[in-house]
Amino acid sequence: GAAMLLWLWLWLWLCVWCCPARGLRIHEYLYFQVLSPGDIRYIFTATPAKDFGGVFNTRYDQIHLVPADPPEACGELNNGVFIQDQIALVERGGCSFLSKTRVIQEHGGRAVIIADNAYDNDSFYIEMIQDSSRRTADIPALFLLGRDGYMIRRSLEQHGLPWAIISIPVNVTSIPTYEMMQPPWTFW
User: Which DSSP category does 31 fall into?
Assistant: First the structure.
């Protein structure tokens, strides 16, 4: 009741005014839900690249989230065949955000989620911007907190799975607050 409304108001206020993501507003977040494996069946928050990449014109109810091999995706991928028509999970570092996005696009990926390489990062969103190369990318590129990316990859390794199954984007405004399954390690 009233306590839930107060909590929601506080959460919105924090997201809009106190967010460590410097100037990001709530509508600039994009949400996705891991459907499988079940131990990480949470709704995750990501931020779209600031000045490159496409947008989601389609909602994918069940699509594979495939960790890139090698994780930084700065060149040829060993598992590129699995990224075709799916979404890649990539790790920050080694080359620009745009370069990673282009590698995934060249392998036929529908989008890329780039997780911070600081595995303890559970609150600071990096603004992904264009590099100086004047290249472009057409697929959506999202930034994911390092702790979230690490927990997804760790779960897949523990289960011996080559990918997670996700829904993206998820409209969180249509989900009752008590059903919002956020990762327990993240403060919303």
Answer: E
